[in-house]
Design brief:
seven-stranded mixed sheet; alpha/beta; single chain; 5 helices; 205 residues; binds inosine 5'-triphosphate
Length: 205
């Protein structure tokens, strides 16, 4: 059985494939199945946008599709950039978005620099169930980028429980503590049980 990892973001794709790699399915990407068309993310929450993406890509490919909608919520900025993290400030690169974030945070003192990453994943089976799971990771926004690994806002997100940024961690380590890992671990249990006939459509564990 093939399972589509429905994201155009290479960083996410790598992480999802690493975390889901031991499922008894063949993981395929949008590129593998020749899909380039995007979908408008018109939802007002991470969960809604993940569902929009998973439904769209499952419908056009006929495959079970797993989509991820994620972002960074910064308390001092009222939860921004949130669901707009990929398009923050209308800027085109991770470097520019990080620079904008640090600029908006420049007057914010250390203890008030709290933030969290949120990840919603949605899995849609054609003609079958649709499941969503959510993962978060708590941290602080640094004053300048630290580390070179990962993608997106990783260099400015210091993971509270680890005392270092995501960009300072090996991919394996990030994939054991991240918001995405938390959301996907729950989804993985569901998929395994579903394939073994141990849960019903509700996906309740
Ligand atoms: P798809 O919709 O094709 O999956 P996207 O990048 O547009 O790709 P989102 O709309 O979910 O996806 O935006 C998520 C953004 O949040 C992403 O582009 C990063 O800027 C940021 N982000 C999410 N998870 C992250 C992580 O683990 N590390 C760093 N930044 C992350």
């Amino acid at each position: 059985m093939r399972l589509l990892i429905a994201t155009g973001n290479e960083g996410k794709k790598r992480e999802c494939a690493a975390i889901l790699g031991d499922l008894p399915v063949e993981l395929v990407s949008l590129r593998d199945v020749g899909v380039t068309a995007g979908v408008e993310e018109t939802g007002s929450s991470f969960e809604e946008n993940a569902a929009l993406k998973a439904r769209h890509y499952s419908r056009i490919t006929g495959l079970p599709a797993l989509a991820d909608d994620s972002g960074l919520e910064v308390q001092a900025l009222g939860g921004e950039p949130g669901i707009y993290s990929a398009r923050y400030g209308g800027l085109d690169s991770d470097e520019e978005r990080i620079a904008l974030l640090l600029d908006r945070m420049k007057a914010v003192p250390g203890p008030e620099r709290t933030a969290r990453f949120v990840c919603a994943v949605c899995l849609v089976w054609p003609g079958g169930p649709e499941w969503t799971s959510l993962g978060t990771c708590e941290g602080l926004i640094t004053r300048y980028p630290v580390g070179t690994a990962g993608f997106g806002y990783d260099p400015v997100f210091l993971v509270r429980s680890e005392g270092r940024t995501f960009a300072q961690m090996s991919p394996h380590h990030k994939n054991s503590v991240s918001h995405r890992a938390r959301a996907l671990r729950e989804m993985k249990v569901r998929v395994k049980k579903w394939l073994q006939g141990q849960i019903d459509r509700s996906g309740e564990l």
